[in-house]
Amino acid sequence: MSSTTSVTTGSPRPARIIMSEAAPAADGAVERQLGTAEILWNSGFVRKTVIIVVLALVWEIYARFLDNPLLFPTFSDTVTTLWQQTLDGTIPNRALTSIKVLLMGYVAGILLAATLTMVAISTRIGTDFLETMTAMFNPLPAIALLPLALIWFGLGNGSLVFVLIHSVLWAVALNTHSGFRGVSNTLRMVGRNYGLKGLPYVTKILIPAAFPSILTGLKIGWAFAWRTLIAAELVFGVSSGAGGLGWFIFENRNLLDIPAVFAGLLTVIIIGLVVENLIFRTLERRTVQKWGLQH
After folding, report:
1. What pLDDT score was predicted for residue 294?
2. Which of 136, 205, 288, 293 is at a distance of 20 to 30 A from 153, taking alpha carbons?
3. Which of 13-17, 108-112, 209-213, 239-243 has the highest mean pLDDT?
């Protein structure tokens, strides 16, 4: 339905404006209910699960096609071995040994990174020191320091903690410092207008604003520490009569128990997925996403 209106202008002929009413939708519906499949597919957990299942199927098909258990065992054989080694307590004990050492190095690295970053944002010489040390040591693989760590700290957890601190420290410090430097001047002035200085200024202004970068640094530090620990345990893993997952992999490789080797590797992957999707994702949802700093 339309109507026509004449409007007199300065021109000899009147201008005509045609106004039309928008036609309603054919079915009259402004929204539709999503089906079960669409609801499930909108879940990130479901999509990631589908990816993992597809990868497992590819693994199984390729291993059966290769038909060489000493070279590449099937996914089903690996899961069976993993289940058996879990029931007898072997893999849980080895995983617990690795996680204990990892937490010691990870926490110590975070504390040192926080100290260096506090000094860096407080003084100009602190910034220069952090940038110089990061440029020197961040590209240096932590595992390359293992021979020195063995000389300095001997065969024990001290050597492992030392290389873990190195793998965590620079990644966390670099991302935290970059996040602090990226805080807008508006937020900085707001903090100063409220009279915030020192530690209250850092905890109430800088840390919340820079938390996406801080969280990224924590993720990178965790990944570096986890893979460094497994690599170090592959070189030497027996401390106080017990070894971690890396040493479990190394032992079974010497025994040519390849399904057990793959079971150890699969355990490393599972722990990484659990930490990433349960701990870091939960922390991300309750902080940066809740604060509107990330979508």
Report:
1. 62
2. 136
3. 108-112
The predicted model gives 101-123 an average pLDDT of 90
Q: How confident is the model at residue 17 (pLDDT cuts 50, 70, 90)?
A: very low
The enclosing domain of 173 has a CATH number of 1.10.3720.10
Does 31 fall in a domain? no
Residue 3 covered by a domain: no
Q: 55 lies in a domain?
A: no
pTM: 0.78
Taking the CA atoms of residue 272, residue 278, residue 281 and residue 283 in that order, the dihedral angle to the nearest 10 degrees is: -120
CA distances from 212 to 1, 163, 165, 219 (A): 54, 26, 22, 11
Instruction: Give the residue from 172, 88, 186 showing the smallest Cα distance to 133.
Output: 172
In which domain, by residue range, is 86 found?
A: 74-289
Total structural domains within the chain: 1
